[in-house]
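pipeline: protein-struct stage 2 | run 1193 | HPr family phosphocarrier protein
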Amino acid sequence: MKLTLPEGLHARPAAQLVAAALRFRSRIRLCLGDRVADLRSILAVLMLGASVGALLDLEVSGDDEDTALAAITQTFVDDQLGEVLDESSDLMGDRLRT
């Protein structure tokens, strides 16, 4: 996912992602390079320090991983936090993983 917010991933959008993640039992992690944040922790998400243009990985594993991945991705798009790069994109690589 490519972050397009001019201010980066600040408190409001981080809270939106955390709220979406809390609806699921799966382990959901947001990664920026070698930094990893539990998406259930707003402090951890903010500590990533993701700025505009950052490429974020979303890692989801657990019983409801498919639903969780779809919901988090949809939150990212609906709340205009950025764009989801499809798997055929050169930038994508393995950015969305289950």
